[in-house]
Amino acid sequence: MKTVVILAAGEGKRMWPYAVIRPKCMIPIANKPVIGHMVETLKSIGFENIIIAGGKLTEQIANHFRKMSGVKIVKVDGAKGTAFALKEVSQYIPDDNFLVLHGDTIIEKHDLEALVESIEKSNVPVALIEPLNDELSNDWICCAVNEGNIHNVTGHPRYKCSHRFCGFALTSEVLGYIECNSGIFSNVNVGVMPPLEGYLEMSLADYISDGNIIKAVETKGTFIDMDKPWHILEANRYMVNKLCNDLASNILGKNAEIDPSAVVEGYVSLGDGSRIGRNVIIKGSIIVGNNTIIDNGAIIEGNAVIGDNCIVRNYCQIGGGSSIGNRCIIEHCAEFSGITMDRVHLYHYMELGGIIGTCTDIGAATVCGGLRFDDGITEHRVRGRREKPKEYANSSYLGDFSRTGVNAIIMPGCKTGVYSIVGPGVLLNEDLPDNTMIMVEQQTVKKHWGPEKYGW
Fold this sequence. Notes:
The protein has 456 residues and is of the alpha/beta class. It is 16% helix and 29% strand.
């Protein structure tokens, strides 16, 4: 089996504000689009025909893979659902057996290998599934397992279900069921309202109801489905730690150097022309791109990935598990933990934990709260639905091409949209929409003042 279809045509509305200017699969994780990590893994286990079904802004996907052979990008914009997206690219599937994965997921290599091995042994369709454990069933399309086979495929059930889907190894026979997809997920509890979309899992449910077998392979490693903004932070932490923990020695590119005064507790991978300078403290391992300077007392609190052409210096502090994009500046006692995308500027005593979108400028002394007075978890609204994330609920989420003024305060869990501005001195305590500026209106009072006020 040499063919895989990666479904990447979803609109990513639950990922706001990070899928406004990019496809969801192009959200960077450890400085690489999440789909880029997936394609590299697939290449490493022998897949030669990688078909990516993209939707809006597919051009960004094509641009990213322009130098990689064996990757075909097909725009299926307008295909309403995963089944119809797969149908659109079925003409490019030459093999009897093939994988179908989602472009916004992280699946470990050994789990993909187990999925491939299972279909090659049985020659029947196989689903890669993950135990839900404490995850809510009504967030996912779920299933149950009986004697190693999938049954009871249900959409967002209100009762507890045992597993959710991670990926599929399918036979050409299943494509006939894809052709006949009804365009609505009818396997739901009474009172649950499915959208008018053609879901791949509904075609698989039809396949099972006709007396066919779909085998189950359970994940053994980490699986992350990036569905909402806090999942980006979860995925980034996993990937940063994985990449850094894989380092077994220092790797120094051409003209790269580490100053003798630097304290490094792990390993360092430095790109060409990069330098770790005076009095830097790194409490883990670090992967650095080309022509990046880390200098003058910068503190990195654990594993980190930093891109090309960055400046990190002057007693700034970066939290462990963070990734810094390309052409970023972090200096002058700035404190940051999480993800910055490319061309982000952080300086002058600002403090932020969360995600900062591309080309965003954070004003001096901007503070983003991460701890509530009641030590509670911030409730989010995702497309109007109330959500309480297990992790990163109190992080801040700043959209691409946004700005803050000096002394802005952003309360725990708040999001700012793309092309938005939080003005000087603003206390933001709710999500700020795209293309919006919020400012403080100040009433000016002028009074006479002089020496007589002091008894002269």
